[in-house]
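Input.
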Amino acid sequence: MVFFGYMLSSVIFGLLADRYGRWKILFLSFIWGSYFSLLTSFSPSYIWFVFLRTMVGCGVSGHAQGLIIKTEFLPTKYRGYMLPLSQVFWLAGSLLIIGLASVVIPTLGWRWLIRIASLPGIVLLLAFKFIPESARYNVSSGNDKAALATLQWIAKMNRSVMPEGKLVEPVNEKRGRFKDLMDRKYLRTTLQIWIIWLGISFAYYGVILASAELLEKNLVCATGGGGAEEAEIGNAAEEIRSPCLCHLFAPSDYQVMIISTIGEIALNPVNILGINFLGRRLSLTITMGCTALFFLLLNICTSSAGLIGFLFMLRALVSANFNTIYIYTAEVYPTSMRALGLGTSGSLCRIGAMVAPFIAQVLMNASFLGALCLFASVCVVCAVSAFTLPIETKGRALQQSK
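Output.
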């Protein structure tokens, strides 16, 4: 339901950001997400919990405007280096919440975990005073004075001076229109990007969910019918003990989560080099192809350490895929529809995320090889789509209008 909320509001926030500004939507989404996240901890019933988490998903979808602001401020030669470094902060937040969960849930419970996790979002609202609106957006909307003031502030911070001259750019009244995404110039790019986003999300959440299945049930090395029978008996016994089939994570579960999460940053240096020297398209093609290969390698019966190694590499690769497609999508569209382009892509992305559990947790138990082949096939389709993208954004200046 979090993904469903994200899917619904991602397009809306993208459209509004192109029409009314990135800063406003980013600020609104932070307030929205923080408020409903905190409210979730007071859920009186499961229905209320599901509804409030859906609202959290709606708020989180607007956070992509932060990437848009960074993209529109960074010079061309630095974007490929600075944008992937955002993954470091994502990793830090992921590790922090896993660490908090290991301490707070066994002692205070999940409600307090949500309350504590909501605090950074509330505190960060104070930082918005120091975040300017995108100068590119202000110029495209005709607000040259605000854009000039922002650039002068930046020049002052850098102890530099503004170059002589004045901002000259025609006002673009047609911003945030769906038909522009389907324009002949961008139609092929848009359709292929949507395929890639859907496939990357499908693979990313497939890896996360499949990790638990593989480590808990040992699906790889199970032989004959005994494994299935034993699993069935075990499940029946578990159902007798706990009808909801719920159990608290052991310390080892948190350790596996931390190890696999660290994997998300493992290939970041290589990913940065690939993005900047090979280009966005070829780099994404290679990492998607390797993702397909490692999905198939999971079918090899190996030790627990070997399995964790495969999962570690898969987590690193799917994270690199996300890194590259985020950058490419933010760069390929002009300012007049950049937020909408990223918003619609994010919406398609959540469809892949919602489908992943049915493959990683349902089909995988019925046909382990079939599930792996499906994940690998989707990754191959994404690799082909990435390789044939009509526009390469490496070294390309951001386009201001269509």
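The chain has two domains: 2-131+176-221+248-387, 134-161+168-175.
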